[in-house]
User: Fold these one by one.
Assistant:
Number 1:
Amino acid sequence: MTAESGAPEPRPGDDKLRRRIAAEAARIVARGGDSERARYRAARRVGQGWVQPEQIPDHDDVRREFHRAASPGHEFAAFTGDRFDRIAALVAPLAAVRQDPARHPEGDALDHTLQAFDLVRAERPFDEELLTAALVHDVGRAIDRADAVAAGLAVLEGLITARTAWLVEHLPAARAYRDGTLGHRARHRLEAHADFHDVLLLADADPLDEAIATLRDLAAEDG
């Protein structure tokens, strides 16, 4: 026990075990697992049974290991190849991310991502940075759903341009802008940015929202 807190002092090897569990969790996520379940699956696998609660890594630990795994030269087979192969390896786990069927009847997050990509490609087929943003905007949902944008940007560092990163980072604000829920100052900041219209296009690349908007427009014309 420590004198001040009364909590048990870390034993030698605890940090190493936590790091090993985080690395195994990152491997599970890379193969399509969800970060929340991956932490406990990895703990059972590495610890070969029950482990102390403080030895179970948090989402930040798994995110750091996942980011390290995405670095050039890492041993993970999933991350070999060029920049585009590594982006594909980060997008692929979205196939295991289930979505609310009422809002996203298209299926898992990967299906949603690919449909969003197609919608953006129909409008801007030669804008590589915008198309990349459409493809990677949900990458973080396979790592940490509670902070998906930050998680995605962390593992994508070095793989995407600054403009693509800005589009991904400000996509939630663009959706709020479209919903009319974005604050006054934030609206003005977003409108003043050079990529304002592009991030709105990305926000509109939602298969269900697109379909509902089409029906609403048709109904208004008929009315």
Note: Confidence is low (pLDDT under 50) at residues 1-8.
Number 2:
Amino acid sequence: MEGSSFSWSSRRLGGFKLENEYLNFLLTRRSIRKFKPDPISKEVILKILDVARYAPSARNAQPWIFIVITDEKVKNELASVHSWASPLKNAPLGIVIACNKDLSPHSYQVDCANVTMYVMLAAHALGLGSVWLQTLRNVSEIQKILNLPENYVPVSMLAIGYPDEKPTPRPRKNLNEITFKDRFNEPFI
């Protein structure tokens, strides 16, 4: 297990063999920034959001809302909030995930991070690519563009579409650099 990886096929959890295909699914998700122009059907969008609403949230508050963005003008406005949001311009679909901070005042950001990952994984399962575009430095600007009330904080903005690129995996830190036992800096590996 030298530092960073070991064979998943030989490991067991609770007596059930971990399935390589499920792990491979997680390991093959990439941030996609270039999309084919093909539209995404309403049926596919609803399937993604239906899966996403099962994301965990503190006290099952489900403080999120999904704003589906297909209008070119709105996409361009959102893509202009900062330079890293530009993938939204050429994506056929954008989704902004906003959380009601009154419903979940202590954990709305974590709750919305969870649901964002569910959206990204559901999109990946359906052959779509996505990229998470940060929002937290541009909250008021995004609220204004989307007519969001002040208590709805846009936690994430996603550009989604059929991938027109196939990025290779980016380097990851070794497990022995980021994994500790019981206390910080006590080696686990």
Note: The radius of gyration is 19 Å.
